[in-house]
Amino acid sequence: MPLFDVSACQSGADAAANNGINIFYTTYGHGHVKVLMIIGLAGTHDSWGPQIKGLTGTLTPNSDMLPDGGNNFEEDGVEVCAFDNRGVGQSSVPTKKSQYTTSIMAKDAIALMDHLGWRKAHVFGHSMGGMIACKLAALVPDRILSLALLNVTGGGYECLPKLDRVTLSIAFRFLRAKTPEQRAAVDLDTHYSKEYLEEYVENQKRREILYQEYVRGISSTGMQSSYGFDGQLNACWTHKLTQIDIESICSAGFLISVIHGRHDVIAQLCHAKRLAEKLHPCARMVELPGGHLVSHERTEEVNKALLGLLKASEQNLSPCEWTNLPAKSAGSGWKVTWISLSRPVLEGRSNLYFRAQIFEKLYIFLMYIVGLFLLAFDYLAIIVRRLKPVKVVPDVTEQKLVDTVSTGSSVYTMTNEQHICMSSN
Fold first, then answer.
1. Which residue among 73, 79, 189, 338 is least crowded, i.e. fewest CB within 10 A of its CB?
2. 95-112 b/e with 16+ CB inside 10 Å = b?
3. Is 380 exposed, middle or buried (CB count within 10 Å of its CB: 0-12, 13-18, 19+)?
């Protein structure tokens, strides 16, 4: 399986900073349509399996193809490249958090495109991979043919899950998972909707089937190192799509699909909608029933949406023909051109906008802290209820045997020292 040295395709400070960083990648299928797939937090390249199969018709990497005609080139086909981000899988694992940002990881992806000789490509990103894809598109918009963002948010505080007991419990279990079995159990609740997991496949629940698959998969690749997980988490938390980034993406004019599961407990749907609105009129919003890994839960619908994006891009469909968002969703006065306006009224509105954003972030942060406190209180209450009182047996020399016998009119109290009879009247 191929590895490539990121620094070999970079120059200057980037090359120096990434010296010795290797990225593992695989390619599938053949054709003039090039698709780069970027996976999310803690995921490896094979997480794109259902989409690779749907786009290319095979899950056999090109490097495993026989040279005797088993990899015939198809002019109208699709070639896909999927890779392990730094910090996971077979790619290098830097030990410093500062070596993990969505901008740095986007430059990894650009270096990979250079290594493959791809001048332009369609870029698909899932979750953290969607954040990286956005940064990539902002850095080199002229190299993007289309953009698909699956279960993505704007990063930062938007990475916080829903503030309810169930989701916080999942997050707590995820952070504590130390074995493939523990990780597999929590991954299922993180990736899929409850309804999907409880469905029966023949005579067995889908949860049980997927659990065994996850344990095997995690065991074969190994648990992600703490350096990699902490680093990638840092990339999500520090990610921010600036107004300049949005301008850069929208001005390029390529088509964008924002695909999201309605029951995603990790990346909330409202944040994906907000991002789609910011990217209007280039963006189309696709809502599907499913969880965070909607690409697996609703494979057919997701693949249909991705193929539709490729087809529309190849046909040079205009953004106005592509979008399904109402015109008022284009920002309601906060269109990308606002940055260049300098009239006092607009300046006042922008100040109010930023103040509202700050208050919103503070509110969500405080609610998150309250949620954590309530969760901790619940766990403490459970522990206290399970504790049994300790019985203390007094010393024999000090113990007195007291028998109290009640009758209709008298109470008799006897000790080992005296016998007293007290009448009730």
1. 73
2. eebebbbbbbbbbbbbbb
3. exposed
Q: Beta-carbon neighbour count of residue 356 at 10 Å?
A: 10
Contact 302, 150 (CB under 8 A): yes
Closest CA to 136 of 126, 147, 127: 147
Residues 256, 331, 147: CA angle, nearest 5 degrees:
10
Largest CA distance in the chain: 114
> Which amino acid, 234?
N
Rounded distance between C-alpha atoms, residue 313 and residue 315, angstroms = 5
Helix axes 180-191, 165-176, angle to 10 degrees: 150
In words, the CATH class of domain 3-161+226-338 is alpha beta
Helix or strand or coil: residue 260? strand
Give residue 176's pLDDT.
84
Where do the domains of the chain lie? 3-161+226-338
- pLDDT tens-digit readout, 330-383: 444 344 333 333 334 333 434 544 455 565 556 555 655 655 665 666 666 667
DSSP state of 88: S
Residue showing tokens 């023909």: 321
Nearest residue to 109 (alpha-carbon basis) of 183, 30, 21, 175: 21
Do residues 322 and 284 touch, judged by C-beta distance below 8 A? yes
